[in-house]
UniProtKB/TrEMBL annotation:
Lineage: Eukaryota, Metazoa, Chordata, Craniata, Vertebrata
Biological process, per Gene Ontology: cell adhesion; heart development; regulation of membrane potential; skeletal muscle tissue development; striated muscle cell differentiation
Family as reported in the entry's similarity comment: Belongs to the popeye family.
Name under which the protein is recorded: POPDC1-3 domain-containing protein
PANTHER family assigned to the protein according to its UniProt record, in alphabetical order: BLOOD VESSEL EPICARDIAL SUBSTANCE (PTHR12101:SF17), POPEYE DOMAIN CONTAINING PROTEIN (PTHR12101)
Principal subcellular localization: other
Keywords associated with the record: Cell adhesion, Cell junction, Cell membrane, Developmental protein, Glycoprotein, Membrane, Tight junction, Transmembrane, Transmembrane helix
Location in the cell: Cell junction, Tight junction; Lateral cell membrane; Membrane
InterPro entries: cNMP-bd_dom_sf, POPDC1-3, POPDC1-3_dom
Length: 340
């Protein structure tokens, strides 16, 4: 290359750029879009409207992610139609096909997560009465009742637990059907009705002390059906589900509170207990087991319990007997923990 050729190349005006298609020079200082192309087809604009609407859906809407993915997928379909029929652009069609597949898969996944969860008929009343008001998702409830628990039955008169014999470390149960009665040394204490824990005080006590025995006898007063969890496996499961762990703490504490009321009023029936469950719990942690243990360890517990159970025909004498019962068995401290 000679000097003349080099100079002609290097002295090319900076205001020009090469056009590789037509090999002509276009001045940069002129407007690049003097002649705008005509407006695209309506399909193109509808696709962009779908994108815009999908992006402005508020996150407070219940199904906003499903709507978003649905609108994005619809926009991609319209872009593919526009690219194939009106633009003949292969690259636009390929990219939007990829976006369509991704959005469609996510859309199907979101629909799958929102599918209605069918709860077994025998668990439906339990879920509606205890877990649904606390916003426990049906899928989480199915995991709770479908992995490490079983349904057991007792005929009338059969014992669920015998005082000083049955260990409290093995299980936790909720009564599904029938009625059970709790007694201490042959004296009736209270009833247990459906959708209530059978051994919640014992379960609460075993979190601190292992190897204890039931201090009461629990027998079936009717043909009973109950849901029984393995205590160890339930504990591991609740540790992996913090939300459900707090739900169980609340339910067990509330159940123990209701049992305490039942001790004060042995005539409490299932209808009254339902009304009590609709009211806020007075505590989240309560151990009636302390009362049961103190009753069992007191030397004069038999006489004091008989005096409490005999009661009196007048309200004043009933209050006096209850006060003696509290003083004798140390329930005063328990009441203070509940109400304070």
């Amino acid at each position: 290359m000679n000097t003349t050729e080099i100079n002609s190349f290097t002295m090319t005006p900076l205001g020009f750029i090469p056009d590789f298609k037509n090999a002509t020079l276009v001045p940069v200082n002129e407007t690049a879009c003097e002649n705008w192309s005509e407006v695209h087809h309506l399909v193109f604009h509808v696709a962009n409207i779908c994108f815009a609407v999908g992006l402005v859906i508020p996150t407070t809407l219940n199904f906003h992610m499903i709507f978003l993915r649905g609108l994005l997928a619809t926009g991609c379909v319209l872009f593919i139609i526009w690219a194939m029929l009106y633009r003949c652009a292969l690259d636009i069609m390929i990219w939007n096909s990829v976006f369509l597949v991704l959005n469609f898969l996510h859309f199907v996944y979101l629909l799958y997560k929102r599918r209605p969860i069918k709860i077994e008929k025998e668990f439906s009343s339990l879920y509606k009465r205890m877990f649904e008001p606390l916003h426990v998702p049906p899928e989480l409830f199915k995991r709770l009742t479908g992995q490490f628990c079983n349904i057991q039955t007792l005929k009338t008169g059969q014992a669920y637990a015998a005082e000083d014999k049955t260990s409290v470390d093995d299980r936790l149960s909720i009564l599904l059907k029938g009625k059970m009665k709790v007694s201490y040394r042959g004296h009736f204490l209270h009833n247990i009705y459906p959708c209530a824990f059978i051994d919640s005080p014992e379960f609460r006590s075993t979190q601190m002390n292992r190897g204890e025995k039931f201090q009461v006898t629990i027998t079936a007063d009717d043909n009973c059906k109950f849901l029984c969890w393995s205590r160890e496996r339930l504990t591991y499961f609740l540790e992996s589900e913090p939300f459900l762990y707090e739900i169980f703490r609340y339910l067990i504490g509330k159940d123990i509170t209701n049992k305490l009321y039942s001790l004060n009023d042995p005539t409490l029936n299932d209808k009254t207990s339902k009304k009590m469950e609709q009211q806020p719990s007075l505590c989240s942690q309560l151990s009636v087991m302390q009362m049961r243990n103190s009753m069992a360890s007191s030397s004069d517990s038999e006489d004091g319990l008989q005096q409490f159970l005999r009661g009196s025909s007048t309200a004043s004498s009933l209050r006096n007997n209850q006060q003696d019962f509290y003083n004798t068995y140390g329930v005063g401290r328990l009441q203070h923990d509940v109400f304070c």
